[in-house]
Amino acid sequence: QVQLVESGGGLVQAGGSLTLSCAASGRTFSLYAMGWFRQAPGKEREFVADIGTGGSTYYRESVKGRFTISRDNAKNTVYLQMSSLKPEDTADYYCAADRDYNGKYNYWGRGTQVTVSS
Fold it and tell me: Which is nearest to 71 in space by CA: 10, 12, 4?
């Protein structure tokens, strides 16, 4: 069983920056692919970014060049650095872990809220 806890959300002006953190339990964190997802009010959850065990990354087109996902295996933590934020980035942000490296995320955090004002 893996527990994930997000932090770092808050209110920010458009064009500003914010960094989210996700702390994970377990001694096998370095073997998991990790992802960030978000869900805006009234909308479905959508993929934002992920990072593999070897450090490879992938982003949805709308956040490329603005968001950076990274991980610190020694701290069992994954980060999402966000800059040039837009009102459409407003959402609850969730981190998730892919235990078997097969694209299916087995564990999810409870989320942290990000609000970007115009």
Answer: 4
